[in-house]
């Protein structure tokens, strides 16, 4: 889910894009006027061995105060690179049992948390928490969160009382707080559909589901605050522009929808309004992201599409 | 098909062996292997109309279906395993297509495979719900059962497989079905061969990409987009807002049946050729995607040997029928003339050639006696220069092709 990741670099006037395509990740950087500057391709390979490349599930930039890492999850394990994809700084292999089990094995779901961790989900429902030093390769697995029983689909985080939200295949959501360790705050039960994408903003959880619905929850209590029949097909991606509360959703129905989240300061009521529809003709969207923290531009990728389509507000 | 069927009274010409290449692999982890079966059933589904010799058709149909639903073959398919490589799939397909007295030349075989590939890709892509890929399979099986409704033995075999599918797949969650669907779609990624029946029906654009409708019924379980409902902290609904999402959708009528018999509702997977139509496929102009896609890892893969061994076990269950002198053979040509067929074979773009594995074996390589016997009977007309390998490594054998 959400095979696109975007990293805006303000000081260099550049935007990095990473798109997953089967067993490779394509990195491209573009300047504001749209001219492509460089390309690179990464594959999920163990160390440098000539093992067949496995399918990459996601690639995402994790922004920490001291550094930015590009994290790749695949059927083999988890790789972390420097932000330009030039050097791999860490590799974590997923346990593969012999003989291979009937269940698929993969990692999926990436988020930076609390300024010092990177959390990655697995197909068994475990969430691996990695401790990231401010520089160097001394990355360690510090904690394993065991709460989900189904494959993790997505993870989201923000600074606040509720730091982390994890979502799984059954549609269940777990909300966590991190002090020295992560503790479970609340659990939101599934209603029968996969939660494929989740975002956290201002204490509000935005979750996208396989039946095309978006739901908003209160992060601290887990209470349902809004339902939106947003799409006619499976939602693949949600993204948030943290400075404005804009939300975008991309689905297999070929639409990107833009929404605005708001929270009334006195009543605490959470509101969502629809801003814009964009149809990427004949394309089942696989990824969609805002290109800047205000949400003035966004990009989308689709199945069988070898391009990244960019939209800007005029 | 409106392609010419010529009855050839000489003995069959086997498929022209394509020159072997250093094997390249694309391994994907897979839930189970049953989609292969669905993929192959399409050849039968598209077999029906247009044949001039109905009696031959019945024989061909029975043979192919009997072979396909062979108990051992099905057992192997149902085991949880990785997705086959493209080469392996094509090889099994070749064998199945030749499980009767019907023969096809390389060009027609390629065309048939292209057609099957794009049709199946279309069906998987357009499934409204991830679980609908199972309904597509059931549509395939329903059609097959209709072809052999007068043969109770084969019908039993098919029903047995049907039951196994229901047992294994009915309880999977939507997320698990979506993973299966995504893995299948990755397999078919970047293939944009234009199929005339799709172009005519406007389900495919001239650039080879499929048309995705933004109207019609939403999938079962999805609401028609357009409504926002907001609740207060007590759970009471406090506000309702409508918006336009851009498409024009309506509610679905009913859910398709997942039982042995029933109305599937979904049309995907039903016979595309229920009205007789011409069969044509066009290679789209060499696209950049294909060029990068075929740059596969050329290093020998230790897992490739495993796969070839597995394939060999599978082949053990598939009989190759060779028409003997007295029984007329049956050659199918999917082009309008023999010359056109030959021309197509010569001009097929390099990157779209299918690398068919030709499994050569010496007697002592195979534990499977049956396979050894079949291999021995297999008429090898095109490769007098092939020397049987003395090595144990299957991979080494392939290298010598």
Mean pLDDT figure of chain A: 87
Give average pLDDT of chain B, whole number. Answer: 67
Helix content of chain A: under 10%
Q: What coarse outline of chain B follows from CA principal-axis ratios?
A: globular
How many DSSP-defined strands of chain A? 27
Strand order of the largest sheet of chain A: 1-2-3-4
* Count of DSSP-assigned helices of chain B: 14
The counted number of beta strands of chain B is 9
* Assembly context of the chains: heterodimer
* Topology of chain B as a string of helices (H) and strands (E): EHHHHEHHHHEHEEEEEHHEHHH
Percent of residues in helices of chain B comes to 40-55%
- Sequence of secondary-structure elements of chain A: EEEEEEEEEEEEEEEEEEEEEEEEEEE
Structural class of chain B: mainly alpha
Largest sheet of chain B: 3 strands, mixed
Count interface residues per chain for the largest interface: A-B, 64 and 62 residues
Separation, N- and C-terminal Cα atoms of chain B = 34 Å
C-alpha Rg of chain A, in Å? 18 Å
**What spatial order of strands do you see in the largest sheet of chain B?**
1-9-2
Protein name (chain B): Organic solute carrier partner 1
Organism (chain B): Chelydra serpentina
Organism (chain A): Chelydra serpentina
Protein name (chain A): WD repeat domain 54
Note the topology.
The complex is a heterodimer of chains A (314) and B (401).
Chain A (H helix, E strand, L loop, with lengths): L3 E6 L4 E8 L2 E8 L4 E8 L12 E8 L4 E7 L2 E6 L5 E6 L13 E7 L3 E6 L3 E6 L8 E7 L5 E6 L6 E5 L4 E6 L3 E7 L6 E7 L2 E6 L3 E6 L5 E6 L5 E7 L4 E6 L3 E9 L6 E10 L5 E6 L6 E6 L6 E4 L2
Antiparallel strand pairs in A: 1-2, 2-3, 3-4, 5-6, 6-7, 7-8, 9-10, 10-11, 11-12, 13-14, 14-15, 15-16, 17-18, 18-19, 19-20, 21-22, 22-23, 23-24, 25-26, 26-27
Chain B lengths: L4 E2 L27 H12 L8 H15 L2 H8 L7 H12 L4 E3 L1 H20 L6 H16 L4 H18 L4 H14 L6 E2 H5 L14 E3 L9 E5 L5 E6 L5 E3 L30 E2 L5 H6 L8 H15 L13 E3 L5 H10 L21 H9 L16 H6 L2
Parallel strand pairs in B: 2-9, 4-7
Antiparallel strand pairs in B: 1-9, 3-8, 5-6
Helix pairs in contact in B: 1-2, 1-5, 1-6, 5-12, 6-7, 11-13
């Amino acid at each position: 889910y959400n095979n696109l990741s975007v990293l805006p670099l303000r000081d260099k006037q550049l935007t990095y894009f990473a798109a997953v395509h089967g067993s490779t990740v394509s990195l491209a950087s573009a300047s504001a006027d749209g001219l492509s500057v460089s390309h690179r391709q990464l594959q999920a390979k163990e160390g440098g061995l000539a093992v067949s490349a496995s399918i990459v599930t996601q690639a995402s930039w994790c922004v920490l105060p001291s550094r930015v890492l590009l994290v790749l999850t695949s059927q083999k394990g988890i790789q972390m690179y420097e932000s330009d994809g030039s050097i791999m700084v860490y590799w974590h292999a997923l346990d593969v049992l012999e003989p291979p089990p009937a269940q698929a094995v993969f990692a999926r779901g990436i988020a930076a948390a609390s300024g010092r961790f990177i959390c990655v989900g697995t197909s068994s429902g475990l969430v691996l928490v990695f401790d990231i030093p401010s520089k160097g390769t001394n990355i360690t697995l510090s904690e394993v969160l065991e709460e989900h029983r189904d494959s993790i689909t997505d993870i989201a985080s923000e600074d606040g009382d509720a730091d982390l939200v994890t979502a799984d295949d059954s549609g269940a959501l777990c909300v966590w707080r991190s002090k020295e360790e992560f503790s479970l705050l609340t659990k939101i039960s599934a209603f029968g559909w996969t939660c494929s994408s989740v975002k956290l903003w201002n204490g509000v959880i935005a979750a996208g589901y396989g039946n095309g619905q978006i739901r908003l929850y209160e992060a601290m209590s887990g209470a349902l605050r809004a339902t939106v029949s947003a799409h006619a097909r499976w939602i693949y991606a949600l993204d948030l522009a943290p400075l404005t509360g804009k939300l975008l959703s991309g689905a297999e129905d070929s639409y990107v929808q833009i929404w605005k989240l708001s929270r009334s300061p006195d009543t605490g009521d959470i509101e969502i309004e629809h801003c814009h529809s964009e149809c990427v003709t004949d394309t089942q969207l696989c990824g969609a992201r805002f290109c800047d923290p205000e949400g003035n531009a966004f990009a989308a990728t689709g199945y069988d599409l070898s391009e990244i389509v960019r939209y800007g507000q005029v | 098909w409106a392609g010419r069927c010529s009855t050839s009274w000489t003995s069959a010409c086997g498929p022209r062996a394509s020159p072997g290449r250093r094997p390249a692999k694309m391994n994907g982890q897979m839930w189970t292997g049953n989609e292969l079966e669905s993929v192959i059933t399409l050849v039968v589904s598209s077999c029906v109309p247009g044949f001039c010799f109905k009696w031959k058709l019945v024989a061909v149909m029975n043979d192919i279906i009997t072979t396909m639903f062979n108990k051992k073959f099905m057992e192997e398919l149902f085991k949880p395993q990785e997705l086959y490589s493209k080469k392996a799939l094509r090889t099994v397909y070749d064998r199945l297509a030749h499980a009767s007295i019907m023969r096809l030349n390389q060009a027609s075989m390629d065309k048939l495979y292209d057609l099957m590939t794009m049709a199946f890709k279309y069906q998987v892509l357009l499934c409204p719900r991830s679980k609908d890929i199972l309904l597509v399979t059931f549509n395939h099986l329903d059609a097959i059962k209709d072809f052999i409704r007068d043969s109770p033995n084969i019908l039993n075999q098919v029903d047995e497989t049907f039951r196994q599918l229901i047992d294994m797949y009915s309880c999977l969650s939507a997320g698990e079905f979506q993973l299966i669907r995504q893995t299948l779609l990755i397999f078919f990624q970047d293939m944009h061969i234009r199929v005339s029946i799709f172009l005519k029906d406007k389900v495919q654009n001239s650039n080879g990409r499929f048309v995705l409708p933004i109207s019609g019924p939403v999938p079962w379980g999805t609401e028609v987009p357009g409504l926002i409902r907001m609740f207060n902290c007590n759970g009471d609904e406090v506000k309702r807002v409508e918006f336009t999402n851009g498409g024009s959708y309506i509610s679905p009528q009913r859910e398709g049946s997942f039982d042995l018999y029933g109305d599937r509702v979904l049309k995907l997977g039903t016979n595309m050729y229920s009205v007789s139509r011409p069969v044509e496929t066009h290679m789209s102009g060499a696209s950049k995607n294909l060029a990068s896609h075929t740059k596969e890892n050329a290093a020998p893969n230790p897992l490739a040997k495993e796969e070839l061994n597995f394939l060999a076990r599978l082949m053990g269950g598939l009989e190759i029928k060779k028409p003997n002198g007295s029984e007329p053979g049956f050659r199918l040509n999917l082009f309008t003339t023999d010359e056109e067929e030959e021309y197509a074979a010569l001009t097929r773009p390099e990157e779209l050639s299918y690398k068919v594995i030709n499994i050569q074996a010496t007697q002592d390589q195979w534990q499977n006696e049956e396979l050894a016997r079949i291999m021995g009977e297999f008429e090898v007309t095109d490769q007098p220069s092939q020397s049987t390998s003395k090595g144990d490594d299957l991979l080494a054998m392939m290298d010598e092709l």
